[in-house]
Amino acid sequence: MPQIQRETGSTLSEINMVPFIDVVLVLLIIFMITAPILQSGIEVDVPKTKTVKELTEVRLVITIDRAQRIYLNDKPINIHDIGQQVVGQMKDPAHQAVYVRSDETVPFGSWATVVDALRQAGIQNISVVTQPLSERSQIK
Questions:
Q1: Residue 122 in this model has a pLDDT that exceeds 90
Q2: Which of 69, 64, 72 is CA-nearest to residue 47?
Q3: What's this model's pTM, rounded to 2 decimal places?
Q4: Residues 6 or more apart from 86 whose CB is under 8 A from it?
Q5: Helices (H), 14-134
Q6: DSSP 8-state class, residue 120
Q7: SS3 70
Q8: Which CATH fold would you assign to the domain 48-139?
Q9: Which of 16, 74, 79, 104 is the most buried (most CB within 10 A)?
């Protein structure tokens, strides 16, 4: 019976894919963990209320953070330019809603200044973004 001899001194002709797959999976896990953090945008503690309406559409959002900086859709904006910028991004300023997110520590005067700038630009439908009260905070 003839025997087939195997060569033991052959070169490695295939690439080992296991280390590559390990690295790709680790990177995938890192991106899955960090992606929600990057999407959160500007950190604001909005006031808590009992009545909250869910947002179903993508709308223009103006944010006022703790340091009273103003953002239009996560981009910093000057208070003097806010009316022009918002009207420029809206199709129907008289009927479309603009949402205002404000940190609960922001003074009312700063919030009123932003709302006044929007009203002067002809925007009448302004909504305030709030967070629902949790069961724990209702008991206190």
A1: no
A2: 64
A3: 0.57
A4: 60, 62, 72, 93, 98, 118, 121, 123
A5: 18-39, 82-89, 108-120
A6: H
A7: strand
A8: Nucleotidyltransferase; domain 5 (3.30.420)
A9: 79
**Per-residue pLDDT reduced to its tens digit, 66-114:** 888 888 887 888 888 888 888 888 887 777 888 888 888 888 888 889 8
* b/e per residue 34-56 (b: at least 16 CB within 10 A): eeeeeeeebebebeeeeeeeeee
What average pLDDT does range 12-39 have in this prediction? 82
**Residue 56 and residue 99 in contact, taking contact as beta carbons nearer than 8 Å:** no
Tokens encoding 17: 């894919």
pLDDT higher than threshold 70 for residue 53: no
Q: What's the number of CA atoms in the CB half-sphere (13 Å) around residue 4?
A: 1
CA distance 40 to 71: 14
